[in-house]
Amino acid sequence: MSIKNVRLEVMQFLEKNVDSYVDQYLIPVEKIWQPSDFLPNSEGDTFFEEVKELREIAKDLPYDFWVTLVGDTITEEALPTYESWLMDVEGIDNVERNGWSKWIRQWTSEENRHGDLLNKYLYLSGRVNMREVEMTTQHLISDGFDIGTGRDPYKNFVYTSFQELATYVSHNRVAQMAKKYGDNKLSKMCKMIAGDEMRHHHAYSEFVSAIFKVDPSEMMIAFQYMMKQKIVMPAHFLRESGEKISTAFEQFSDSAQRIGVYTAADYIDIMQKLMTRWEIDKITGLTDEAEKARDYLMKLPARMTRISERMTIPQESHIFKWVEPARL
């Protein structure tokens, strides 16, 4: 049987558990928070006073913080790209609306609230050029992405396990910094988003754990493949208006690293957490190729730590069109 057919058979075997995954890791629409729960109430008599307060507090947030928050927002708002990509993965059938496509639709519906909330906050803050933000978002959706997984569910679930934990780290750090600067409402918003991301991380990690039980060698090789080529962020094709895809994502990443929102050390820590979660060192019955893949994985965190120690981050902030210093 071909590798592709084995993947499909495993996905069909695990599909019987999708409803329990939905119940365990997703929250019904009527019970989960909505963006309006954390924003000034546009129906209330105090709306303008609430907006004024939001704008006053936002004045104290520094430049790299705004760049990071805008970049996080744009990443969240490019959700159509992520859903369309995952719907095309082997074993996920949106035409027949199988269990896996149900998961993707409901996961997407939860993720969609994140961009809605952050976009409205940015708009009300008066601190960013929303037209530039909107053009970058449109470019990012139009350009799509290539995360190196193809249609392989094993590789895609490694990617989502990693990426959901990375977005948890980013949103949680932004929440901590917002609180430090006195913006308790923004802090609560980002904390709630981070909570969703952690819950979704646990779900995708569970999918990988289940695959390790039935197809350990191929799952190990897929994990090694993704770590060897490195996890690229969803917004790696980020660009500003009038620009080509070039260095904008690196410049955004530099801002995030300068203020400690998401760093090379975090990348290595996430990789180590996944290896611990999946008990990579304890899996038995591997083929020779899979054993070599495991050996590579076990040595990788230390190797990447040595590389990261030699990295230098530019001290000067790149001036993005999204955030004009004169507005701050």
Description:
By secondary structure, the protein is mainly alpha-helical. 66% of the residues lie in helices and 0% in strands. It has 13 helices and no strands. Helix 2 packs parallel to helix 6 (99-125), helix 4 crosses helix 11 (248-258) and helix 6 packs antiparallel against helix 9 (184-214). It is globular and about 65 Å long.
Low-confidence stretches are none
The chain-level mean pLDDT equals 95
Relative helix content: 55-70%
Series of secondary-structure elements, N-terminal to C-terminal = HHHHHHHHHHHHH
Cα distance spanning the termini? 60 Å
Assign the structural class, choosing from mainly alpha, mainly beta, alpha/beta, alpha+beta, or little secondary structure: mainly alpha
The largest sheet, given as strand count, sense and whether it forms a barrel, is: none
Radius of gyration: 21 Å
Number of helices: 13
* Shape estimate: globular
In percent, how much strand structure appears in the residues?
under 5%
Please give the number of β-strands: 0
Note the topology.
Blueprint: H1 3-14, H2 18-25, H3 47-58, H4 63-77, H5 79-87, H6 99-125, H7 130-143, H8 153-180, H9 184-214, H10 216-229, H11 248-258, H12 264-277, H13 288-308
Give a quick set of tags describing it.
single chain; 328 residues; 66% helix; 0% strand
How would you summarize this macromolecular structure in one to three sentences?
Helix content is 66%, strand content 0%. It is mainly alpha-helical and 328 residues long. The mean pLDDT is 95.
